[in-house]
Amino acid sequence: MQTFATLADLTEHKGRELGTSDWLTITQEMINQFAEATGDRQWIHTDPERAARESPFKAPIAHGFLTLSLAPKLLNEIFRVDSVRMAVNYGTNKVRFTNPVPAGSRLRMKAWLHHVEPQHPGTADSDEGSNGVRAITECVFEVDGQDKPACVAELVSLLFE
To answer: Tell me, what's the pLDDT at 26?
Structure first.
């Protein structure tokens, strides 16, 4: 794990790789729980028998948004800033789901700190009286044994000291 003492230290790392998370197994149970939480119970995700018969992937696959929703967990394995008291997911600039994640496969994320800019106190997007930054992190979700990534995303976070 990459550790930064302050946001200033993180800012100096702009343009460089942050690291790689541990592998996480995407279970059918995780997929089913995501389907229940979101109401997206499409058979390609939740019906292993039908997916084996009818899907071009021959197995159920994770929802793309399940993969993306793992970003905060995986980023927490990759880096931290000790002085940060609050972090907010601000959004995404780009997201592409480029390859399926079959149930039972292992997923990990690589991250690069693409851009960092000051987030000034008193603006609509900040916490009054805080020192903050808007960080853009490029994230690539890899599936074990596959050359093509499952997801590529440019995530935007607000970090405050």
So the answer is: 98
pLDDT at 119: 86
* Tokens coding 13: 């790392």
Cα R_g (the chain), whole angstroms: 18
pTM for the full model?
0.90
Which domains does the chain show, CATH number per domain? 2-24+62-160 (3.10.129.10)
Burial of 105 (C-beta count, 10 Å sphere; 0-12/13-18/19+)? buried
Q: Is 76 left (phi over 0), alpha (psi -120 to 50) or beta?
A: alpha
Q: Which residues of the chain have pLDDT under 70?
A: 121-130
HEC profile of the chain:
CEEECCHHHHHHCCCCEEEECCCEECCHHHHHHHHHHHCCCCHHHHCHHHHHHHCCCCCCECCHHHHHHCHHHHHHHHEEECCCCEEEEEEEEEEEECCCCECCCEEEEEEEEEEEEEECCCCCCCCCCCCEEEEEEEEEEEECCCCCCCEEEEEEEEEEC
pLDDT of residue 136: 98
Tokens at residue 146, please? 């596959």
